[in-house]
Amino acid sequence: MDAQSFLDDTGLATDSLDDDYDSTWVDDGTLPEDRFLDRELSWLAFNQRVLELAEDENLPLLERANFLAIFSNNLDEFFMVRVAGLKRRIMTGLAVPTNVGRAPLDVLSAISERAHELQARHAAVFRDLVKPALDDAGIHIETWADLDDEDRERIDEIFSTRIFPVLMPLAVDPAHPFPYISGLSLNLSVRVRSPKTGKEEFARLKVPTVLPRFVQLPDDERGLLRFIPLEDLVSNHLEELFPGMEILEHHEFRVTRNEDVEVEEDESENLIQSLERELLRRRFGPPIRLEITDDMDERTLELLVRELGITEQEVYRLPAPLDLGGLFEVFRIDRPELKYRKHVPTTSAALLPVEPNAEPDVFASISRGDVLLHHPYESFATSVQAFLEQAARDPNVLAIKQTLYRTSGDSPIVEALIDAAEAGKAVLALVEIKARFDESANINWARQLEKAGVHVVYGMVGLKTHCKLALVVREEGGVLRHYSHIGTGNYNPKTSRIYEDLGLLTADDQVGKDLTRLFNELSGYAIEKKFKRLLVAPLHLRKGLLKRIRVETQNALTGAPSGIRIKVNSIVDEAIIDALYLASQAGVPIDLWVRGICSVRPGVEGLSENIRVRSILGRYLEHSRIFSFANGDDPQVFIGSADIMHRNLDRRVETLVRLADPGQLQEVTALFDLAMSEETASWWLEESGEWTRHAATVAGDELQDLQDVVMRQISARKRGGTW
């Protein structure tokens, strides 16, 4: 099907393009079958890009160690959720979602092969590149073999007084069955033999998580920072744990378990109770990966494989140390010269008081016009947090409504809501207790809020509430006025310092009315279909995006200006991708800026030659979502919480808001121009599915770093200024 036939079949060449058009078009089979890239392999390619940052000798050394730790944590979650989910579906006979036409077992096999390659490369980067560089910088991660007698004598004292008391060896014999191995814990397998009977025994020793992963060695008067991995120190004191026994073998191992919570939502059951039950089950999910040190003997390995019930494909042999996520501790070393230069976020120029030395007034600033925030370049504390804190103490504020998906442990946002409720204001908090890996924290927040008198809603049955919304209702001169915030990131002051996000503060009455209706529906029983400045999932966000893609397709076919620019974390939805392919065939220039998973195959002749895909990784995690459409000469730009994934469009409550200020539209255009420029460092997705890093010119000069450029531009802004 070509682009014109596509438009004709959906009636878009002639209809009025309202929200009731037919969006049920399905590819008729004329598009190539191999047009989608595999989402799981695409995610592994994203983590490879993280690893390439750790390999980059031009980056500050401790940042490279940090990227090694991020790679490790990313891969852990990938196995706990994505691989575990695929395996569970295969074992239970459920359909496995795949858009590349491969058999499920083939998908798992391809994932395993690629993951083995990446984990081996990850270990080599630490051993051959980062560790030697740390040594040169005076930060030594030693092994027991590196220590002299004096060091060993001093560390014996550390072991005896600080470590030995918390160790718990567990024997395995007829009286002691094989112990439960908790997910992601680091363990030592120990085989011992009794000198009296000659009988061999097996024991498991868990490396305590309450102790530092890297134990600092005493100062040897050389001015060096020296550490030894905790498991290495413990393994060289096993005779104290098994007195009188001969130590035959000891090796490190680590198990990853299925920790994907599947809550069967039933309107007749308390959702919190159901979720808490599932969280208990999560701890005992089946093993899906076994990491072992490459010197482990076959006898021990056979025992672990048999007792854990895993396959050879799920065994990963790696050099010690395992679990390089522990390098987060090394990153925290106070060596600023080995890190990115510190950046202090500025207060948004639009939120500065008009009069010098006047107190900031967020409501007065928003009243002057929409404020587009760009975190972490602009401060979350002096914008979003200040907005809610001022609302909590303002006697003219009557009500506050807020969604909470993830927040920090000591959240000033939650404190502001509690303060507002205790001051007698009407406060509604929609807490998404199904936010993965934050379920327990969100349940605790919800209960604290309820105790303070906040009206707490736990979302909707069958849907996650992922949108980032805050609404303040304020009385001004006898009239109620709405102040709104719609963002792309969570209300989390901690992640706001490292996640790149956008947010809109507005006093626009239409946005306020839209949010009022949406909050009422979220706390009630239905989601209304139509809003004025919002696109809301699950009912009409997909339709709204498809409609705007088709408008661009029609414009290109008729010679009108056209163009699509999208920035997301992930894009995998087949219907949206197919619409983009057809737009490309019609001649629409399409720029996709994707941090993570991308199933689009760009640059294919006759299919996607007008599509460019870029990815940017750096000191901040690119997290904002932007949808920009040329729309002839009347551009439409939306920001919000949704990625182009099935879950975001069909199984979550998501919200996009349309920007209206011409200066803000120019700002978004300039941001895309910078991201897609050949003078900006980025990864380019090729037709083959490979990502190629472009970080230097042919002459070897470094390309500009987008985040550094944006940082400088925003720091230099004056009141009322633009890019």
What name goes with the CATH superfamily of the largest domain?
Answer: Polyphosphate kinase middle domain
- Give the count of structural domains: 3
The residue ranges in which pLDDT falls below 50 over 5 or more consecutive positions are 10-26, 263-269
- Count all strands and give the number: 27
Q: Main β-sheet: number of strands, strand sense, barrel status?
A: 10 strands, mixed
Helix content: 25-40%
The CATH class designation of the largest domain is: Alpha Beta
The overall average pLDDT, rounded, is: 88
Query: In CATH terms, what is the fold-level topology of the largest domain?
Result: polyphosphate kinase like
C-alpha-based Rg, rounded: 28 Å
Looking at the overall shape, the CATH architecture of the largest domain is 2-Layer Sandwich
Shape: globular
Oligomer kind = single chain
Q: DSSP strand (E) fraction?
A: 15-25%
Terminus-to-terminus distance: 42 Å
Q: Give the helix tally.
A: 20
Which structural class best describes the helix and strand composition?
alpha/beta
Function: Catalyzes the reversible transfer of the terminal phosphate of ATP to form a long-chain polyphosphate (polyP).
Catalytic activity: [phosphate](n) + ATP = [phosphate](n+1) + ADP
Domain Polyphosphate kinase middle: 151-329
Keywords: ATP-binding, Kinase, Magnesium, Metal-binding, Nucleotide-binding, Phosphoprotein, Transferase
